[in-house]
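Morning run. Coffee first, then this:
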Amino acid sequence: MDIRTFIVETKWGGMSLVSLYLSVLSGMALALQYDPATPFFSASSLDLLAPFGQFFRACHFYSSQLFFLFSLSHLAAIILAKADQQLRFGKWLLLVGSVLAALLLLFTGYVLRADATGEAAGVIAENITLSIPYLGAVLNSLLFAIEAEGMKRVYANHLIGLGLVWGICCWDHLRRYRVTFAQHSLLLFATVGVSLFLAAPMEPARLGLFHIQGPWFLLGLQELLRYLDPFWAGVIFPSTLVVALACVGAAEPWRRRSLLYIAGWLAVYLILSVIAAVR
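And here it is:
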């Protein structure tokens, strides 16, 4: 079996949904203990004070990572499976929107930890959002507003808002596709097993530390911010990828050109991420 066949035939969508279900269930247990007024103390005390808190936090963390990665794989599988077919543009845009919502869900989860990584992610997000002309303040108030309101807005979006956006984007797909834990029992047991023995990361702030890495998927962006203005590095550069992904659902030659651009964009971002990781 070649790589293309493996990607196309693997049930990435089902594994993504199972990971999401596990993330939601473990997240419900965490939400009962989490207080956005004291985010770092609340998140760190889950491991020490809440019954099975370390397991639930680890389960939520790892299942959320898998949900996002499997969503990306599902997106790639659709592109490869329909390489010779015209994608339905409207449904394709919804699928791209669902991946963006999944990315924001994962990102806000990092921010809510309020540890060194989460704090760095929050600062990056606010600075990038506020760099957008005219709309920056409105978008920041809608999505983050960390400096003004702490974690309240981020918590509400993570708990409700972004989940609703993801559900709307995927509704037409979900109502025709059903998945159960029994269909992916190996994935379920593996995630639970890892969560039992491997705690989720928590990085307290350290005095004298001048360079803090953000989440793994933001390393390339964080490195690019060293060389470019936040608007160009954090808004224009990622937006070109979103536009290219949207154009994959268009007719030729836009589809082929978009795929070439996406490949080049990912290569550049990978190089930037490696530089940031070894810095």
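The chain has two domains: 12-200, 213-279. Good start to the day.
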